[in-house]
Amino acid sequence: MITGVPTEFIPPGPQSFDTPPIIDGVDWFTKPVLVASLSVVVIIWFFWGASRKAAIVPSRLQFAGELGYNFVRNSIARDAIGSAEYMKYVPYLCGLFFFILANNVAASIPLIQFPTFSHAGWAYVAAMMTWVIYNGAGIRKHGVLGYLKLQTMPAGVPWWLLWLMIPIEFISNILVRPISLSLRLFANMFAGHILLLVFVLGGEYMVFESDSIALAGVGVITFLMGFAIAGLELFVQCIHAYIFVILTAQYIGSAIADEH
Q1: Are 107 and 233 in contact (CB under 8 A)?
Q2: For the chain, what percentages of helix, strand and coil (3-state, to nearest 5) are there?
Q3: Does residue 180 carry a pLDDT above 80?
């Protein structure tokens, strides 16, 4: 700032998510890659430590690990897929849940403060993995034609409505699901982080760059509201890890069901 002349406030936007390479010359190794890699290390350490010395009377780490695993197994996989076939999908659902959760919550950790899934490519890959798995599960159980019939021809629909229902159901169940799944996660992580940046950076600008006492007071309030937004954002980060995985489990359950 030139003496007496405040600098112009540059609002946060998509450019705020453009992170330079951490190592010069290694263009692919950016902050999202680092956060994702660290999350994998933390998840492996957590479950390895929780299961390494399993005992009847669990340690705090073992209790936490069992609590997390049982939550995914019982409250997500079994409830959405059914007790007959849910166990084969628990490893994927458990790994997916904790990977998304760790990368979302990273946005609230000081010095990291970056949600990996605010980059759409990460959400697209997660959604495409789910798409391959639930379609593969359905095809393995029913065959290609049987699976397509179940997904596009709802039971009880009159034959004369099938010409309308088949393309609608195909687009909805086969094409749109991965798009909506990925965009829901990406949009919430992107928008939440933008909102937090607006309150924090806007408050900081009004406090330190404004010549107005009144505006500086508003800046203090705005900055403090940023902490409330951070708490809300932490809730959103957790709930969207759950939403992504519960929808994945529901899609798997729908794919292997005998009828709709």
Answers
A1: yes
A2: 75, 0, 20
A3: yes
